[in-house]
């Protein structure tokens, strides 16, 4: 291969590498900006007036409700309590306790994520006792999407212990008209249930870290190219050959 062809190929490869790494760094910065805007929107939702029963009457605008504080009255439906398995809090694995709340003066219900409880690792089927007071109760918390889904093998989710909870299937199973949202119940620990829900973490720092890596690689390609293909080729004198 002639020196000119080798130089041309190395130059083309360096330019492609520079363009690719720089573009990936810019893309990571744009993702970080999008998530910062989303986090700002979430924070603004938390400052709005609490959601009440009147706000949930009729058609529910999901985007308008998410992340807002909520204060509802209704009755627990304890026979439909579900324990979502493999959920973590404070780096410990246990259950999320989810119970439908039938809203006062309404035919609809909403899922309430009531808290986290530790599991019995010696007996997987042993469930902690969760008190569900009879009569009308008041629930305060934060509006959230339905419980997040974890990876699970395909199959029918049934029984008190489940990996995931599909809203449409659960509504058909229980006969409850469930709203397309849930409530993360707030307040101090209730018995064994803890409610230290993690704050919204959108991973903005991760994108800045990836952007730093891509820009660093871009700079490294540029430095190596300049040193080996320009400085050593055209500026530094060629090494003297010994006779």
Walk me through the structure:
The chain has about 240 residues and is an alpha+beta fold. Helix content is about 35%, strand content about 25%. It is built from 4 helices and 7 strands, in the order ααββββββαβα. It has helices at about 5-45, 60-65, 165-175, 205-235; strands at about 70-75, 80-90, 90-105, 110-120, 135-145, 160, 175-185. It has a 5-stranded mixed beta barrel. Helix 1 (about 5-45) packs antiparallel against helix 4 (about 205-235). It is elongated and about 95 Å long. The model has no long low-confidence stretch (mean pLDDT about 85).
- On the 0 to 100 scale, the average pLDDT is 87
User: What's the β-strand tally?
Assistant: 7
> What does the overall shape look like?
elongated
**How are helices and strands ordered from N to C?**
HHEEEEEEHEH
Cα gyration radius (Å): 28 Å
Largest sheet: 5 strands, mixed, barrel
Helix-strand makeup class: alpha+beta
Proportion of helical residues: 25-40%
Strand content: 15-25%
Instruction: Kindly report the spatial arrangement of strands forming the biggest sheet.
Output: 1-3-4-7-5
Q: How far apart lie the N and C ends? A: 27 Å
Poorly predicted tracts of residues: none
Number of helices: 4
């Amino acid at each position: 291969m002639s020196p000119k062809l080798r130089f041309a190929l190395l130059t083309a490869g360096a330019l492609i590498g520079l363009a690719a790494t720089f573009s990936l760094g810019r893309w990571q910065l744009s993702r970080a900006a999008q998530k910062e805007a989303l986090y700002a929107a979430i924070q603004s939702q938390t400052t709005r007036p609490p959601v009440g029963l009147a706000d949930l009457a009729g058609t529910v605008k999901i985007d308008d409700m998410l992340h807002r504080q909520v204060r509802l009255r209704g009755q627990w439906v304890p026979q439909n309590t579900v324990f979502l398995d493999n959920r973590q809090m404070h780096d410990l694995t246990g259950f999320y306790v989810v119970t439908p709340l039938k809203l006062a003066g309404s035919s609809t219900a909403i899922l309430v994520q009531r808290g986290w409880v530790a599991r019995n690792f010696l007996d997987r089927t042993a469930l902690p006792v969760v008190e569900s007071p009879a009569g009308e109760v008041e629930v305060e918390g934060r509006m959230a999407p339905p419980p997040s889904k974890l990876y699970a093998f395909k199959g029918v989710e049934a029984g008190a212990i489940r990996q995931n909870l599909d809203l449409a299937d659960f509504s058909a199973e229980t006969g409850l008209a469930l709203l397309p949202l849930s409530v993360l119940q707030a307040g101090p620990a209730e018995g064994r249930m803890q409610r230290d829900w993690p704050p919204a973490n959108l991973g903005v720092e991760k994108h800045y870290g990836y952007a730093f890596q891509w820009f660093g690689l871009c700079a490294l390609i540029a430095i190596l190219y300049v040193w080996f293909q320009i400085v050593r080729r055209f500026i530094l004198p060629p090494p003297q050959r010994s006779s």
